[in-house]
Amino acid sequence: MKRLVTLCYLVGLALAVPGAAWAHATLTQTSPSFQQRLERSPAFVQLRFDQSVKALPNAITVYTSKGRVVSGLVRPATTDPRVVTVPVRRLARGAYTVRWRVVSADSHVVSGVFTFGVRARAPPATAAFGASGPTTREHLVRWLYFVALALVGGGLGFRLLIVPGPLPAKVERRFYHVVGVGAVGAIEIGILAFLLRAEDALQLPFGTFLYGDLSPIAVLRFGRAFVVMTLGFALVCALLFLAWLTERRILLWPAFVLSIGLASGLSLSGHSAVDPGSSWLSELADWAHLAAASLWVGGLVQLAFVVWPLAPELRRAAFLRFSRLATVLIAVLLGAGTYLSILRLPHLHDLWTVSYGQVLLVKLGLVSLALLWGAVHHFVVRPALERGSVPFAGLPRSLIGESAVGVAILLVAAILVESKPPPQPVRAPTAASHAATP
Question: What pLDDT is stored for residue 31 in this prediction?
Answer without folding.
Answer: 93
